Amino acid sequence: MEIELLIFLELCQKCISTTIGERRMPLLLVVYGCHCLWKEGLRRDVTRLLGSMFKAVIFDMDGVLVNSEEFYFNRRMSYFEEKGLNPGSTDIHDYLGMSNNQVWAALVPDPEQREVLRKDYLVYQDAHPIDYSRFLNAGVVTLLKSLKTHGMVIGLASAGIYADIFRMLSECHIRPFFDQVLSGEAVPNNKPAPDIYVEISGKLGVEVGQCLAIEDSSNGIQAAKDAGMTTWAVDQAQYNVDQSRADRIVSGMDEIRKTLK
Fold it and tell me: What does the pLDDT read at residue 261?
């Protein structure tokens, strides 16, 4: 939204410098005229300009490509209930956008107990797997196809582990769309540090300023913004996620596609 506003103001500035005969147009009339042009179709030109600004789009995974956060949360809570244990938090908001290490630090404050339970949970997790194809967000495939059609480079930067990332890509049949895939576990500091976005932009061969990050969690938004990327957040109003640092909040994949096409 900030980018579109700047373009709109630039249009007003150009119009202000325009003369009609020997008289300059009143400022209020200029702004009103520009606003009318905007409503009548200039916005389409702006969205095309927005698309041309970016050479790469980099997606987060959980909450962006797949709506998996609630499944993960419920599986963890079921495990602790079956064990007769109390997790560190029973609030889903405390786990959104976290890496596995961060999640387990929140679940089990004691390091020794944490390691024991984490190993045991792997068995439980294997017995209760997620079927990612059931949780693929609407419009993802259409958006990826559109980005490729327009020559966009595509990356995936997830705080999760590679095993989960590649299983999701396989089960959802979207692996061929991605030029680079990176796990936050493979960089020195996971989200909310910017390492993963700096690293993947280098692997894609695109400057951070020409990358658009699609995120949802406050940790992910912080990581992308601190890396220097324009960041759009997929609306997570149902979880009351703080997305205030995002450059734009979008309703979903269709809005992204229509804006960038």
Answer: 75
